[in-house]
Amino acid sequence: YHEANIIVNTIVVYHSLNLRKYYRRVFIVKDCSSESLKKILLKFNPKKISFLLGSGFAEKFDDPNFFCNKYNFGNSIEVNNTIKSKDFFKILRKNKINFPQISFKNHKKNWIVKGQKSYGSLSVKKINTLNYILKDNEYSQRFIQGKVISVQFISENKKIKIISICEQINLKDEYTIDYLVTKDITNTYKNKIFKLIEKLTSIFDLNGLNSVELISEKKKYFLIEINSRPGLGINIVGKLNGGPFFSKKKKDMKKKILVTKIIYANKKLTINQRMIKFFKKFFDLKKFSELPNLGDIIKVNQPLCLIHISAENIELLKKEMSNTTQLIERIESMQNEK
Q1: Contact, 210 vs 227, CB < 8 A?
Q2: d(CA 69, CA 47)
Q3: Nearest-CA neighbor of 72 among 97, 52, 55, 44?
Q4: Which of 176, 294, 300, 308 is close enough to 171 for a disulfide, judged by CB 3.0 to 4.6 Å?
Q5: Please, are residues 1 and 50 in contact by the beta-carbon 8 Å criterion?
Q6: Contact indicator for 258, 150 with CB cutoff of 8 Å
Q7: pLDDT the model gives residue 1
Q8: 282 CB contacts (<8 Å, ≥6 apart)?
Q9: Which stretches of the chain drop beneath a pLDDT of 70?
Q10: How far apart are CA 163 and CA 249, in angstroms?
Q11: pLDDT tens profile 241-254
């Protein structure tokens, strides 16, 4: 939206270092709840603003009347609510769309437990015991150990445009995301994906930038979830499509491999002035985003930032990743420096 010269105000929970360079005003809230969001939005006239709900807010904002039918760059509140409800699975089953078995009553051994309004792999856990009692907002789902594909697409008036197909690499715990990397697939599989997304778009009336996650098992593909708002792949979408709009022509990246990786802290960090100076000097804004601010506390295994890499081949990609790792190690070594 910044590149499209659209003036944007943003409401965030995590205030990244360079956020103010891209937005007119930045508002920081304590959480993604409807109450926190409304408190800021009431400073504006909801009848006169266009809006887009991002990760966290889209899952939790449940008042369809608040925006008074003003222009929404994304999906309607009703669509977001349906996708994060029990009805979602009933609709999938009715339309014969494969998804891993679920249970809202009993947890089964070696299945995973998910929150109905989970996002970014939050509220997802693997519980091996049978005596776990599911909470009202949780369900149990059969765990499939296979390759996860993340597909980013834009929909407008039920027409779709697939922007990127990525392999989603998870950490050793099997469901926390490590990184997305663009992937070449066969035309046969591309056609299957296109038909599935076309069907999902029609069923749920999807609009704007969305993504779906699929997992394979014995040559059969299952829908894990629909992310009915911008997600981790937004940087890849920007590079390939030039923005989050349907009308943009797809850019020629000359078959480059694109990666967005989450950097998790290996130790507890309190961001000091020396780290900030290092960020500003060595962390290219085209390669790094979501950088922390002075005084932020990053706990072990919490996200420190995102890195965005493009390379013409695997060897160059590994070199870029290695260079990035060295920068992160240098930051972590500054913990006890003033």
Answers
A1: yes
A2: 8
A3: 52
A4: 176
A5: no
A6: no
A7: 67
A8: 327
A9: 1-4, 46-48, 68-69, 118-123, 173-174, 247-254, 337-338
A10: 10
A11: 877 777 656 666 55
